[in-house]
Fold this protein.
Amino acid sequence: MDVESFFEEMPFADLLGVEVTTVADGHAEGRIEVREELSWNADRLVAHGGVTFTLADTVGGAALVSLVERPVPTIDMRIDYLAAGTGDLRAEADVVRQGGDVGVVDVAVYATDDGTHVADARGVYKTG
């Protein structure tokens, strides 16, 4: 399975503009350009929480797919929003546990312009 192309062909991620940039050995990275239509604020560009969540979920799944080489549906994801996501966002994900039935991935989301730590997430995905 070509992991990069798998995530390029996800209609929802494509609609939002999520780009998975690095995928290998239980690690993944990705980014999203926060456009006006993805902002929750009409006066300034601030990523809607759902955009931050989608970035974390997609990049987290990519990290696990790099190990199991098949789609991994999300079972559960918990996210802590730490700061406003002003500007474009990037995410880094690392697999914490790869099991026969489930996998666990930690994801950190940052603002690309100043490195502000925007969110931490932990995703649980079905592997079997």
Observations:
- The mean pLDDT is 92.
- Helices lie at 3-8, 11-16, 49-68.
